[in-house]
Every structure is written in structure tokens, then in C-alpha cells.
Amino acid sequence: MKATLVILASALIGVGCDSAVGGESPNPGHSYIVGIDISGSRTKAEMDESKQLLDALIQRLQAGDHLTLIEVYQGGREPARQWSDSIRAPRKAGQLTGSERQRLEDFRNIARMQTSILFDSVRTREIQRTDMFGTLARAADYAKASRNRATTLLLLSDMMNETPDVNMTSRQDVPGDGWIRQRAAAQRIPQLSGVCVVVAGADVSSARGAAIRRFWNKYFEAAGTRVSPDNYRNMISDPAEIACSGN
Amino acid sequence: MSLPNPFWAKPHPDAIDDGDEHGVYEITKKTDYWFNREVYQLEQEAKQLAAEWAEKGLPRHDVERVGVLEPEQMLGMKCLELFRQWHKRVRVKMQDRIQSGSAALNRLIGEARSEVNALEATATERKHTQAQIESFLQFKEPDTTRVGYDRIFRSSVGFWIFAIILTIAEFTANFPVFRLLLPMDSTLVSLAATLGEAAESHTWLAGPLVLFQDILLHFEAFLVALIAVVILVLLGKTTGSSARSIVAFRASESPMAATTIRSHRRQHVTVFIAGVLGIAAVLSFMYFSRGQIAETAQSRVQSDSVSLRQALADQQAAGTDLAKTAATTQRVTDATRTLRQHLDDAAYAQTVQRINRPIVLLNIGLVLAAMTLGFVYKKEDLTDRQGEHSSLRPLRARLQALEREALGHARGARTSLSGAAAQAGRINHLLESHPLREWQGKQDRLQSVILQFRGENARVRGLDPANVIAFAQPSRIAFPEVNEDEELRRPTEFDQLLEELSEADAEYARVGAYAIPTGVQPSRSRGS
User: Could you tell me if B335 and B308 are in contact, meaning their C-beta atoms sit under 8 angstroms apart?
Assistant: First the structure.
């Protein structure tokens, strides 16, 4: 009987050690804030690409990560839908237990379900306005709540603001530097310092797109961050690219 | 007109003494009764004759008769005959009774002798039996005789190896039942899945690892199954050991260890019966449990299906509400996972239930193996000589039976001798009783018949008997003389019988002491 107990104990210890081997790298957790633009200015192909990117990002989420999905504001009194949740950090960094793995997988499933709801094509036709400034303000609020987590703001949008105040449908309507300074002076620009901003879905080839890009570069500088040229793109195929150098 | 019978109407004056039925009176009372009845009839006849003669005026009161009057002559002759018959009856009856008493005396002496002989024979047999008992009490078995046996399977290491193999086999055969009866919670299910994935990397070790993980994760089932199996193997081993103790020893083969063997067997029979009952209970529990696990698992699946449908309905009802959708999606995921697990369990349970009977046979085989292991590994030594020879018990019983027989024979002999002595005394009493001493009274009674004739004749005619000249003649009947001291005839064998009675009495006095119980000699070993 003693020998049997020894064998059983050895097996149990072996199994426990095995589960530690091949575990993931230590991850303190990352906060992803995703702005989803499903406005009519975007084509169906663009939205499918955005959805695929978001799904890929969700698949890369690790235990301890935080995900916030924000529908780009329509402006006015129309509320934007948003969902924010996090995966509980592992008890031991890099050693996921069975329940932690299951929680992670469940979180991914739920996030994908939320994504499919937010990318609802029927709802796309109902959206008339795109309030990028309001969305950034809400994102800044979420970023502040991220505490010590590294925060990445992913904007799945063409970055064309379409509100009565600022309508970027034509190159001439894109606000200039004075508008930004005026806003900054009035403290109406949200603070995003320390937040990595990545844009996927923007127009980077047309003159209007270049003007819009320039505007947002200036705007984000005023918000305390910057968007590197590599992170302001029309399409990102690999979710691993959703990061800022130095992060 | 009939006259009342005075002898029938009145009770016999000695009726209150009729209790003594063995004396002379008992013999003569019927004769006396007969005599009185005959005399009464003679008296009635005399009165009738007197009346008839009176009617005709006879005898004439004034004429002297020569010779005896005819009625008186007739009555006198009858009286004489009646007296002779009485005399003869008394003698014959007395003699018959003496003779029958002699025969009874002879019979009783014979019975007494027979009982005395039987008592003597019994005494001889008791003496012989007692001698046998003493002989067996002195009996000693040779010291070389050993009451015990060794292990058939001598290796202790081998025993433990087989015991562990049996336990593992029994556990493996029965653990699934308990695993399905006691399902683990969802946390352990996810942990099991993770460990299962981890085990996959061990290729050929994956099987045993998954099995061990499964066993350890179902800890409740593991404990219950382990305890049940250990108990089963223990019961099997104990029952097998007891079976060997029961069949190995026989009191008749080792008389000197008989007491120890009987005590030993009693204990092991108890253990054996308890073990068999315990094994039957455990195996029955397992059999019936396995017979129901498919239903239990299926009911869980149905319950889970309902839960899943409800979760899906809630998810649909949530629509595009992101907050509600998250919660309902989680519920759907959990319900799906649980259902999948329970579907696997249900399939497994159906398989187990389908091979329930073969599993029972396997269980029985393993229990028999455990019993065999217990049987072959058992060793005992009862060589402590705490018994006695097996023949002592029946001999003691025989001695007691003989003592009871001796008491019966002694009592029979005593009764027969007492009866014979009483019979001899009665014969002597009858021989010396002189029953004819009453002859004078009987003659006087008969003499009164003539007087009654004369008196009645005169009364009817209204005369005084003294005035009838014919009645002046004397009325005496000439009865023969009787020797009242005449002795009854003594039976020729009576003296011989008295001698035999004396001899039988002496013989009984000699062997009567044999009837005293000797008691059973206490055993040397008992109580020591």
C-alpha cells in the first residue's frame, strides 16, 4: 500500500510540474480600448477588415488584460454602446490554471459575441453622424481608469468626424491648427498621455485623407500622445502590430 | 303384592368397611349376600305354603299328625341343601383366592428376580464403561502430533504483491461507478480538462496520467471506491482465512485438541458468515448502483439540456444589449460545457450498465481470488492440548443412561418384592382366617324357616300356633356337624415360593447398592 501511495503522489507531482512547463510569459495585463466606427462613410469591406482585426486581437488577449469596446459616438443625445470587461489576472504569472484558461476562453467568446453585435450591418445604415471627439473623450476616461496597465487605443475608423461642428467630408472642412489650439486653450481636448494610439481603417492615400491625418497628428499631440506613421494605417492584418514602439 | 326386599332396600351394614378388598370379608361378602337372598326366598316360600295350607284349614288344629308335615319336610330339605351349598362355596372361594395369590406371588418373585438380574447386568456394564472413561482420561497423544497447518503460499512479498494487484484490479473495475455516482464540480471539470491537455504531451504516458488525474480529481469517488474495494479485499481475504480454519481442523482427528478446535471453529464460522454477508452486500450495492447509473447520468443530461435551452432563450432575449449578452453568453458557455461533460458520462454509464453482469462476474472472481489468497496464506497451530478424547463424551452419556436404567431396575425390583411380600402375607392371612366359624349363625337362620311357616299358617287362620296340635312336634332341621377349625388347603408351592422370596430379597439387598449414581467424573482438562 505504501508503494501505491508513493506512485500516486509522484504522478500527481509530475502532472503539476508538467502544467507549469510551457506556460505563458509573465503578463501584468494590458488594457485595450477599441473605438468601433460603423458609420455609413465606411464600406462593408472596411468594416469586415476591422472586425477581423478585432477578432484577432481578442484571440491574443491574455489573462489579466482589459478590453473596452466603444461604439463611435453619433453625437447629440444618441447614446453610444460600450462594453468593458477584464480577464482576471492569473494567480501565478505565466502559469495558467485550468479554470484560468477556461475563464480566458470564455472571455474571448463573449468579446467576440459583443463584437458581432457592434458590427451589426443593419445598424450601420441607421447611423447618420460620427463624433470622433466624443469617442476620444470617453476613451480618455477609460484610459485613466486603466491605472498601471499599459493602454492601447485602437481606433477602427476612417477618422472622418461628421458632426455639425466639424465635418471632414471635404478637404477644406478639416479644421486647422488654430482650431486645435483654441480647443486646447479651452481644455476641450481629452488627455491621452501614455496611451498608445493605433488607427486602422483611415484613408491614407487621398489628399483629404492626408489632411485628416495631419489634423489628427496635431490633435493627438495636443492630447499628450502621438500616433506614429506605422500606427496610422488603412489596414492591419496582424494583431501583433497593434502596439507602439517602446511598449 | 310384592314385598320389599329387605336385603336390597337397606345398605349392607358393613358397606362402610368395603374399602378393605383384600381380606376374608372381600371374599365371603358375595357368598353371604347369596346366602341371605336364598334364605329370603325360602322364607317367602314358607309363607306362601303356610297361606295355601291355611286356606284349606290344614293342618287341622285339633288333629295330631303322625310324621313330619309335608311342607315342613320340603322346607327342611331345602334349608339343608342351602347350608351345604354355603359351606362348599366358602371353602372353594377361599381356596381359589389362596391359589391365585400364590400365582401372583410367583409372578412377582419372577419379576423381582428379573429386575435384580438386570440391575446386576447394568452394574457390570457401568463398571466397564467407567473403566473405559478412566482409560481415556489417562490417554495421551504422542507429542509428535501437531494440530495445525502451514501456509500453502509461503512468500510474504508475493502475498502483498497479489493483494495489491487484486486491490488495484478491483478498484479499476469499480471506480467508474463511484465516479459517475459522485460527479465533480465545474471547477474540477475545467481543471481535469487542463490536466488532460497537459498529459497529451507525454505521449505514451498520457493514458496512465489521465487515469491518475481522473482518480485524484474525483476525490470523493476515489475515497469511497478505495474504501469499498479495500473492505471487499479484506473481507475476501478474511473469509478465505476463516474457510481454511473451518475445513482444516476436525475434532475427531485431534481428540486432545477437540475443545480448542470447537471453540476455534465457532469463531471462524462466525467470521466466515459475516464475511460472506459483507461481500454479498458490497457486491449487491455495486451491481445495483451500476444498474442505475445510466438513468442517473441520463437524467443529468436532460436537466442540463433544459438549462442550456433556458440559457439560449435568455441569450436571444438579450438581443443587442451588450451587458445582458455578456452574462447570457457566459451562461450558455457554462451550460454547454456541463452538458458536453454529462453526455460523455452518460455514454460511459450506458457502456458500464451494458456490461454490468460481466463486471459482477469479474468482481466475484476477484473476491474469490482474495479468498484464495487468504486461504493459502493462512497458518495456525492449535497444539496446546486443551481437549480430551473424543470417545469420552459418548461414554459419559452411556454411563448416565446406565445409571438411569439401574435406578429404574432397582425401583422395579423393590416394587415387585414389596408386592410379593404383601401377597405372601395375604395368603397366610387367608389360610388362618377360618371362614366357617359362622356356620352356627347360618344354621340358626335356616331353622327359623319352619317356625315362620307355622306362625304364618296360624296367623292366617286366626289361631295361636300353640293351639295347633300338629305344630306341637319339634321343628328342628338336622344339619350336619361342621368342623369350624378345619384349615384350608395350603398350596404345595407356597413354602417354596416363600424361600424364593427370601432369596430374591437377599439378592436385592446385595445388588441394590448398584443403583446409587456414581456421577460423572470431572474432566481433567475442562475448566483448567
Answer: yes
Q: Residues of A numbered 68-87 whose beta carbons fall under 8 angstroms of chain B's beta carbons: which are they?
A: 69, 81-83, 85
Pairing of strands B380-381, B148-149: antiparallel
User: How far apart are alpha carbons A121 and A242 in whole angstroms?
Assistant: 25
- Rounded mean pLDDT, B88-101: 92
Q: Give per-residue pLDDT as tens, B254-284.
A: 777 777 888 888 999 999 999 999 999 988 9
> What pLDDT does B238 receive?
93
Q: Is B377 helix (H, G, I), strand (E, B) or coil?
A: coil
Residue of A nearest to B211 (CA): A11
Q: Which residues contact B420 (CB under 8 A, 6 or more apart)?
A: B105, B108, B109, B112, B501, B504
Residue A24 contacts B where some CB pair is shorter than 8 Å:
no
Which whole-number Å values give the CA distances from B393 to B131, B137, B140, B403, in the listed order? Answer: 14, 11, 16, 16
List the grid coordinates of B321.
444589449
- Which residues, 6 or more positions from A80, have their beta carbon under 8 angstroms from its beta carbon? A70, A71, A72, A73, A74, A134, A135, A138
Answer whether B191 sits within 8 Å of A97, measured CB to CB: yes
Looking at chain B, which residue has its C-alpha nearest residue A117? B320
Residue A19 and residue A166 in contact, taking contact as beta carbons nearer than 8 Å? no
Residues B212, A12: C-beta atoms closer than 8 Å: yes
Q: Which residue does chain B place closest to A98, by CA atoms? A: B191
Sign of CA dihedral A100, A102, A107, A108: positive
Alpha helices per DSSP H over B432-493:
439-461
In three-state secondary structure terms, B148 is strand
| Band of residue B224 on the pLDDT scale cut at 50, 70, 90 | confident
Q: H helices then E strands: how many in chain B?
A: 13, 2
Q: Mark yes or no for CB contact A117/B322 under 8 Å.
A: yes
Distance of alpha carbon B190 from alpha carbon B201, whole angstroms? 18
Give the mean pLDDT of chain A.
83
pLDDT for B125: 92
The DSSP line for B13-67 is TTGGGTT--SSHHHHHHHHHHHHHHHHHHHHHHHHHHHHHHHHTT-S-TTSPPSS
> What are the grid coordinates assigned to B142, written together?
504422542
Mean pLDDT, residues B20-38: 83
Chain A hits for B193, CB-CB cut-off 8 Å, are 98, 102
Q: Are A73 and A135 in contact (CB under 8 A)?
A: yes
Strands A66-71, A82-86: pairing kind? antiparallel
Q: A-B interface: how many C-beta pairs under 8 angstroms? A: 77
Chain B nearest CA to A81, separation (Å): 8
pLDDT confidence of residue B195: 67
pLDDT tens per residue, range A195-241: 999 999 999 899 899 999 999 999 999 999 999 989 999 999 999 99
Reply yes or no on whether the pLDDT at A154 is more than 90: yes
Q: How far apart are CA A237 and CA A221, in angstroms?
A: 26
Task: Tell if the CB–CB gap between B322 and A69 is shorter than 8 Å.
Answer: yes
Single-letter amino acid code for the residue at B70: E
Residues 169-188 of chain B whose Cβ lies under 8 A from any Cβ of chain A:
187
In this prediction, the answer to ipTM > 0.85 reads: no
In this prediction, what percent of chain B has a pLDDT beyond 90? 34
- pLDDT score recorded for residue A137: 92
Q: Which residue of B has its CA nearest to A123?
A: B320
Q: Which of A190-199, B75-84, B247-256, B362-371 has the lowest mean pLDDT?
A: B247-256
Inter-chain touch B212–A8, beta carbons under 8 Å: yes
B391-408 residue pLDDT tens = 788 888 999 999 899 999
